[in-house]
Specification:
The complex is a heterodimer of chains A (134) and B (221). In chain A, 27% of the residues lie in helices and 17% in strands. Chain A is α+β, with helices and mostly antiparallel strands. In chain A, strands 1, 2, 3, 4 and 5 form a five-stranded antiparallel beta sheet that branches. In chain A, a hairpin with a 6-residue loop joins strand 3 and strand 4. Chain A is globular. Chain B has one domain: Rossmann fold (3-Layer(aba) Sandwich). Chain B contains seven helices and seven strands, in the order ααβαβαββααβαββ. The longest helix of chain B is centred in the middle third of the chain and has 13 residues. Chain B has 221 residues and is α/β, with parallel strands linked by helices. The chains are: A alpha+beta (134), B alpha/beta (221). At the A-B interface, helix 1 and strand 5 of A face strand 3 of B. The structure holds S-adenosylmethionine (SAM) and zinc ion. S-adenosylmethionine (SAM) binds next to helix 1, helix 3, strand 2 and helix 5 of chain B. Chain B: Pfam families: MTS (PF05175). Chain B: Belongs to the eukaryotic/archaeal PrmC-related family. Chain B: One of its GO terms (molecular function) is S-adenosylmethionine-dependent methyltransferase activity.
Chain lengths: 134, 221
């Protein structure tokens, strides 16, 4: 599962929807195995559009869960997406490596509200609930 | 005619593409320009529920629908469908697209109001009951049943999605959902049309079934 996907996943338990703690899930860094996958090419425009959309605080939290505390505290902004300078490109390239190329191939994560644990196996996150919670 | 994915899967484990799958492909093809204009210049989050073999999501990736700024989520309860979807994507050279396969019961695992395009060819065959989701991956007969049967009027699963549509779709979001005549889609349209703008995109007779694809979006204010 690619890092960026963590910005869209929440706990599946319906009762957790009324809490603010169902997103992002809390990833167990000691159990998450990361791999770099280079099949998707760097596309600055795509990255800028992704950044427009992501919730940066959740990116920071998950990155910290996985041991990366070097991200800027505020979401990078680009004045004009049609004229990106070299510094912008460097930032976007780093974000491409983090958000798109970094994937969690095995791992586990928990809901901060109900504590339910979900697993990632073979890069596929399993967000199904056991019958007693569904 | 847009290219259609080449699909080769184990149909003892995942739903084999059929008339319903093709009607959805035709509907998306018909709406290609509409979608590319609607989602121009922003990131689009595409989410297919129940991708099965992956034919529909792969078709969208192959033809960069809605735009080349899209990410694709394929959500199925059937673990074999997730593997098949990845295989189909690779078989059709889509490894450069952002595809995530997620084992999930409908959209329960995705944050509210984040999906720009929802596509669903649901289990729509009327039946008395719907089996429980198996705990065992190898219970393949049950996975296949779950691909087909939709409970009363075949609407049990689809209705869950329709009831939550307002919290599933982004502000600008659209949903493409397939129905068969026994689902009584005209009644659904009648009940929902005050709140939603609903278009019949394609319909077709397939054997003794009449299938239709409707597009749902919020009424513009
Ligand atoms: C009619 S098949 C469609 C397969 C494929 N999209 C196609 O058009 O050929 C329905 C799919 O929905 C999946 N499904 C059934 N119930 C589901 C649920 N509650 N959540 C997610 N997927 C579900 C089934 O596993 C199956 O893959
Ligand atoms: Zn929870």
């Amino acid at each position: 599962m690619k890092f960026l996907t963590t910005n869209f996943l929440k706990c599946s338990v319906q009762a957790c929807d009324t809490s603010n703690d169902n997103f992002p899930l809390s990833y167990d860094g000691s159990k998450c195995q990361l791999e770099q996958d280079e099949s998707i090419e760097f596309n600055p425009e795509f990255l800028v559009n992704i950044l427009d959309r992501v919730e940066w605080s959740a990116i920071l939290q998950v990155a910290a869960d996985l041991g990366n505390t070097s991200l800027p505290p505020n979401k990078p902004i680009f004045e004009d997406k049609n004229s990106l300078n070299e510094d912008d490109m460097a930032i976007l390239r780093d974000l491409h490596i983090l958000l798109i190329q970094t994937s969690i191939v095995e791992g586990e994560m928990k809901c901060k509200n109900c504590g339910h644990t979900y697993y990632i196996k073979n890069s596929i996150p399993n967000l199904l609930l056991p019958p007693h919670l569904a | 005619m847009l290219p259609t994915p080449y699909v080769k899967c184990d149909y003892e484990k995942v739903y084999e593409p059929a008339e319903d799958s093709f009607l959805l492909l035709d509907s998306l093809e018909k709406d290609q320009l509409y979608l590319s204009e609607r989602f121009n210049n922003t990131l689009s989050v595409v989410c297919e529920l129940g991708p099965g073999s992956g034919i529909i999501t792969t078709f969208m990736m192959q033809n960069t629908m809605p735009t080349n700024n899209s990410i694709y989520f394929a959500l199925d309860i059937n673990p074999w469908a997730l593997e098949a979807t990845t295989d189909t994507a690779i078989r059709n050279s889509c490894e450069k697209s952002y595809l995530e396969t997620i084992q999930s019961n409908l959209t329960s695992s995705i944050r509210n109001n984040e999906i720009d395009i929802l596509v669903f060819n649901p289990p729509y065959v009327p039946a008395e009951t719907i089996p429980d989701i198996p705990m065992d991956k190898n219970d393949i007969d049950t996975w296949l049943d779950l691909a087909l049967v939709g409970g009363e009027d075949g609407m049990k699963i689809t209705q869950l999605v329709l009831d939550q549509l307002d919290s599933i779709l982004s502000i600008n979001g659209v949903a493409y959902i397939l129905f068969c005549a026994r689902n009584k889609p005209e009644n659904i349209v009648k009940l929902m049309k005050n709140q939603w703008s609903i278009e019949l995109v394609e319909h077709r007779k397939a054997g003794w079934e009449v299938l239709s694809v409707y597009r749902f979006s919020r009424k513009s204010l």
